[in-house]
Amino acid sequence: MKTNTRLPQVTFQTRVRDEIVGGPNPFRWQEMTTADYFAGKRVVLFSLPGAFTPTCSTYQLPGFEKGFPEFAAKGIDEIYCLSVNDSFVMNQWAKAQGLENVKVIPDGSGEFTRRMGMLVRKDNLGFGLRSWRYACIVNDGVIEAWFEEPGLMDNCPDDPYGVSSPENVMAWLSQVEAA
After folding, report:
1. Rounded CA gap, 108 and 66, in Å?
2. Domain assignment present for 31
3. CB atoms within 10 A of CB 115
4. In whole angstroms, what is the distance from residue 18 CA to residue 49 CA?
5. Does the pTM of the predicted model rise above 0.85?
6. Cα separation of 166 and 170, whole Å?
């Protein structure tokens, strides 16, 4: 579907640790662009409905975190987890998950997700606008492979998961390597 298309160019509002700030919350705002994250790298990007939610916290994020060495062996430089959550939420979720390998990208305004065509309403869960669950392999800002959960719709009554799983993305990488 989106294979061979360039990622949308947006600016993400992130919070980064900076000891110069001092105090109990030594973080400062830092703008990061699509190019900052993706230029010159081959990465796995996966996006999900929300930080701290069951499927995301139990399966998808931990699976990519644990599988990072295998992904790196297949030529993946970074793994990014994106959600329509602000930087404060994403940073706390990364901390709660004990992330060492996966990096989080906050799409607080949903601009990147909207421009990807993946912004959906989840009012039925009290979430508002969120990302549909997907994963992709991005090579220097261009989508190499696309893994979208079926049934893209507003207020989906369930949360499909499988197509964008780390296991499925790894299976694709293994097939490409074997070809």
Report:
1. 26
2. yes
3. 15
4. 29
5. yes
6. 6
pLDDT at 26: 87
* Strand 42-48, strand 78-83: pairing: parallel
Q: Is residue 4 in some structural domain?
A: no
Identify whether 56 is a catalytic site residue.
Answer: yes
Residues 24-57 have pLDDT tens digits of: 888 899 999 999 999 999 999 999 999 998 887 8
d(CA 45, CA 84): 14
CB 100 within 8 A of CB 66: no
Beta strands in the chain (DSSP E): 11-17, 27-33, 42-48, 78-83, 103-106, 119-121, 129-131, 134-139, 142-148
DSSP state of 68: H
What is the pLDDT confidence band of residue 1, given thresholds at 50, 70 and 90? low
For residue 169, give its domain range.
Answer: 11-178
Q: How many domains does the chain have?
A: 1
Task: Please check whether residue 1 lies inside any domain of the structure.
Answer: no
**Which residue is catalytic, options 56, 81, 136, 156?**
56
